[in-house]
Specification:
This protein has 15 helices and 46 strands. It is an alpha+beta fold and 945 residues long. The chain is elongated.
Length: 945
């Protein structure tokens, strides 16, 4: 504009504000949560077991084979075929020849739970137990002279061998019917071990080619035709034969969509911390180690090639390099394609920071037992230096209603019990139910589904091809979801280039693996505790458990006590009937409390239709607290190793969380972890909008319009914002997308011709912004710009601002008055023009500060000092906290004390607060903690091409 002195005058920008839910007040709780110092909280176990009767959950006196439940014939206790086999072996027994005591392999089905005393008596008689088989049977190696004692035992219902059809995976049925000489790769599962190699020799004599042996899960990788399989099925030592499945890969605003950018540049972005490094594994098609985005790992990478195609650093497909870039790419070639754990680097602390196992060929398929070998690579093959803390596997084999009792799923369960977190893609066979791939169906897998991260109507919705649960034994899957549509990441053929627009749960899984890696570095807790945090803090998108699991992961909620807080406890339960409890003080004003229990259940039996072995239940109780298996709320799944309770608007007070052993069918104890997550304010937050635009511009002039969105409570998920011009007369050239940069400032990307995108997740009191580049038209008049924003959990709203396009300045610039305003070129604009320009001060919020000049602190916590050792009977369990001793369990707190959040500039990242707040009840000081600043305007999003 031109002033009365003839010189240009900068346009005055004014701001309008609106919210999506005007009737819902913003949370008056601080962004950071509350803390419990340990006083008023207790832990303990019940002295006497509280055993519920067998059958309480509907379990049967039957054997749950893959091809259906088997109920033994009435009156039959010992299978005739087994009796005959035992007689033959007894007759052939020759002590003088030095042969061992004659034995048979069979299943023992019980009428009731097997007690410790009865098991000890049977073991004293020479019976060897080799694993639980649902519903209430055990694999066993039985001396032939002990069969009579078993037959006379009232608690025993039946002893016998599975029939050949019960030992055969249904997938192999067509091959068996066809016959012929076609040879296929197989997993041959045994009852018990084969230390002498006698079973191997018998399998080879049956016509199988036998390769490697899995000593922990007792199966051989072999190859054979139909006749050889029939021969092996007749062996009593063979439990189940299954094919080795062919696996394939489960193929960028995405990072801010789960608040990854809030971690970049902080101590929680994957970099070594407190003298520790995270050991990450990737199973995929190889990795282009020469890409610039992996230069931070140049000396810390190694790998295995489990295919016959070139080396592991030769990715002939591209999938493995793309996945790796999403997980930990540093963004050196182009910052906009930075990965989640971008601080992951060569540490010098561990011999191998990254392990890549190449399991896919250039055609995108596995080769032989390459996936099984890759899983063993992740487990370290007995070498703790190689063993991973977590690994990403964006692949799997297809099937319908898979129960998770196959060899690969059982290996995943084994790894989870060894404190390894397997992050696995759900698959791309949706949208029908029961389509989750193996080994994503495994109990031990943190299984990831795929959601859109962009689009006016698609943000935070399920991708149509994302595989859905439930599993074949009716567990909900996936566990969580993350962005996996149109993802851009590192190239396998161009060391500074990228591959654009890839889709699938393969692309979603490494987002979650990156978050899991940063959590492991932050807290250094067991894998099941990390999984409990990820699931417990996930944002419910309302898409259903078998589509989304517990929801979309979010880095802000997982790492920090944001607008609420969380606690995670881990311990171990004893035998059937054992109860462990933790009392927690819940403050006033909590809007929702979610308790998520996760436990590393032992691997299932091969060929079973149910994967669960040990069964833990979850109870929450308030009011009168008892020491039995009871509570006002409960989660009592007979199939899942995850139990979830959600309580809306819980009253303030003491709540007792109980973990109950309904049945311990394997081992002497069962480890577990639960996360209890509180939030203040509404789960459907206001999205507060602010739109800043010039009051007036000249015709054919370039200018910008700035839109800002902030959350009134909790986290507003998937805030999609766009700008329209209802009146016409203005051109939208594109938008500038902002997000937080690793240096604490902000970084931006301009998108020509784009007018709307997903801003990302927005935490309570934080904000994200867009800037739209505009050009005014040649015609004068009043124009309207409209910002529209919608959030999957925060509703939608529109906000208008008027902009006057006028090429002629008023003749009396300093004293606006309708009477003095004599210009006649745009008479319809006179009064509005005067109103817009009478005050040259930008509109401010009711707090007196502009929204772009506010920043808020969040707090992380370092592990406190070691606590007292747990009782001797559980010395091997990991302690969950190292703070004030509370016998006999241990608690770890992740939540921070309430504090006043000062206004600060948008670039004030990195400030530390060394204050030590006083405990409100005792006056003592609580443990100091690191508090890093997270500016409101510095966390804006990455974009797709």
């Amino acid at each position: 504009m031109i002033g009365p002195d003839g010189n240009p005058v900068a346009p005055i920008y004014e701001t309008t504000q609106k919210r999506t839910r005007p009737n819902t007040p913003d949370s008056n709780a601080p962004a950071e949560g509350f803390t419990h110092g340990g006083d008023g909280e207790s832990v303990g176990k019940i002295g006497d077991p509280f055993v519920l009767p067998f059958g309480t959950k509907g379990e049967r006196v039957a054997i749950a084979f893959r091809n259906g439940d088997f109920v033994p014939p009435v009156g039959e206790k010992v299978q005739p075929a087994l009796r005959l086999l035992a007689a033959q072996r007894a007759q052939a027994f020759n002590p003088a020849a030095g042969s061992s005591r004659p034995m048979v392999h069979a299943l023992i089905l019980f009428n009731e739970r097997l007690s410790d005393g009865m098991r000890a008596q049977m073991e004293a008689a020479g019976i060897e137990f080799h694993g639980f088989y649902p519903y209430n049977a055990y694999q066993a190696r039985i001396p032939v002279d002990a069969l009579a004692r078993l037959e006379a035992t009232q608690a025993v219902r039946w002893v016998g061998m599975p029939e050949p059809i019960q030992k055969l995976d249904p997938v192999l049925a067509p091959l068996m019917q066809k016959g012929g000489t076609e040879r296929v790769p197989l997993y041959v599962n045994l009852i018990g071990d084969d230390p002498s190699g006698s079973v191997r020799a018998t399998l080879q004599a049956a016509g199988l080619t036998v390769y490697t042996y899995h000593p922990d899960l007792h199966f051989y990788y072999a190859e054979g035709n139909a006749q050889a399989i029939w021969n092996a099925l007749s062996m009593d030592s063979v439990l189940f034969i299954e094919p080795v499945p062919v696996s394939t890969p489960a193929h960028t605003e995405s990072q801010p969509s789960i608040n990854a950018d809030r971690l970049w540049g902080t101590e929680f972005d994957g970099r070594p911390r407190d003298g520790r490094q995270i050991k990450i594994g990737v199973m995929d098609s190889g990795m282009n180690t020469s890409h610039q985005d992996f230069s931070n790992l140049s000396g810390g990478m190694f790998g295995y090639n489990r295919t016959t195609e070139q080396n592991w650093w030769n990715d002939l497909h591209g999938h493995g390099t793309h996945v790796s870039g999403t997980l930990f790419g540093e963004g050196n070639a182009q910052f906009r394609y930075r990965g989640f754990a971008a601080g992951f680097q060569e540490s010098g602390l561990e011999q191998f920071d990254l392990l890549h196992s190449k399991v896919f060929r250039s055609n995108g398929s596995s080769e032989g037992n390459s996936v099984g070998e890759g899983l063993e690579d992740m487990r370290g093959r007995g070498n703790n230096t190689i063993k991973r803390h977590l690994f990403n596997y964006s692949g799997g084999f297809t099937g319908t209603n898979l129960p998770g009792t196959d060899a690969q799923s059982r290996t995943v369960d084994l790894a989870f019990g060894e404190d390894i977190l397997p992050v696995i893609a759900a698959g791309n066979e949706g949208s029908n139910a029961g389509t989750v791939r193996g080994p994503g169906v495994a109990k031990g897998a943190l299984t990831v589904g795929n959601i859109w991260d962009d689009g006016e109507t698609t943000t935070d919705t399920m991708a149509p091809d994302s595989s859905r649960g439930p599993t074949g034994d009716n567990r909900f899957k996936p566990d969580v979801v993350a962005p996996g549509r149109w993802i851009d990441s590192t190239s396998n053929t161009d060391n500074s280039g990228y591959l654009f627009g890839w889709n699938g749960t393969s692309m979603a899984a490494p987002h979650v693996a990156g978050l899991a890696a940063t959590l492991k570095l932050h807290y250094n807790w067991p894998a099941w505790a990390i999984r409990a945090i990820l699931m417990g803090t996930a944002i419910d998108l309302g898409l259903g458990r078998n589509n989304q699991g517990l929801g979309k992961v979010d880095a802000l909620l997982a790492h920090y006590a944001w607008n609420g807080g969380w606690e995670t406890w881990f311990w171990a339960n004893g035998g059937t009937g054992d109860v462990r409890y933790i009392d927690v003080n819940v403050p006033a004003g909590v809007s929702r409390m979610r308790v998520t229990l996760v436990y590393p259940d032992p691997p299932a039996s091969a060929g079973a239709s149910i994967a669960l072995v040990n069964d833990l239940d979850l109870y929450v109780q308030t009011g009168t607290l008892t020491t039995n298996a009871s509570g006002q709320w409960s989660s009592l799944s007979a199939r899942n190793n995850v139990e979830v309770i959600e309580i809306n608007n819980p009253a303030a007070g003491t709540y007792r969380v109980k973990v109950y052993t309904y049945a311990l069918n394997s081992g002497s104890s069962q480890s577990w972890a639960f996360n209890i997550h509180w939030t203040f304010g509404s789960q459907s937050p206001n999205v507060n909008l602010s739109l800043t635009a010039p009051a007036a511009v000249k015709p054919s002039t370039n200018f910008t319009v700035t839109g800002t969105a902030s959350a009134g409570s909790y986290v507003a998920s998937g805030v999609f914002a766009q700008l329209t011009v209802p009146t016409g007369g203005l051109t939208r050239n594109g938008l500038t997308y902002f997000r937080r940069a690793p240096n604490g400032g902000e970084e931006s990307v301009y998108f020509s011709g784009v007018v709307g995108k997903n801003m990302g997740n927005i935490g309570h009191t934080l904000s994200r912004k867009f800037e739209w580049s505009m050009t005014s038209g040649a015609t004068e008049g009043t124009r309207t710009v409209r910002m529209s924003a919608s959030s999957s959990n925060g509703g939608s709203a529109t906000l208008d601002r008027s902009i006057i396009v006028d090429g002629t300045s008023p003749t009396n610039w300093s004293n606006f008055s309708p009477a003095d305003w004599i210009n006649t070129q745009t008479p319809t604009c006179r009064f509005r023009y005067r109103m817009c320009w009478q005050d040259s001060t930008p509109v401010r919020s009711s707090t007196g500060t502009t929204r772009l000049a506010r920043a808020h602190r969040v707090r992380s916590q370092r592990p406190p000092a070691p606590r007292t050792e747990p009782p001797p009977w559980r010395r091997s369990t990991r302690r969950m906290c190292r703070s004030t001793p509370i016998a006999p369990a241990h608690k770890r707190r992740s939540i921070s004390a309430p504090m006043t959040v000062p206004a600060t500039t948008a670039t004030a990242a990195g400030n530390k607060c060394a204050s030590t707040p006083s405990h409100p009840a005792t006056g003592r000081t609580s443990r100091p903690a690191d508090r890093s600043t997270v500016p409101e305007s510095l966390a804006l999003s990455k974009c797709a091409m």
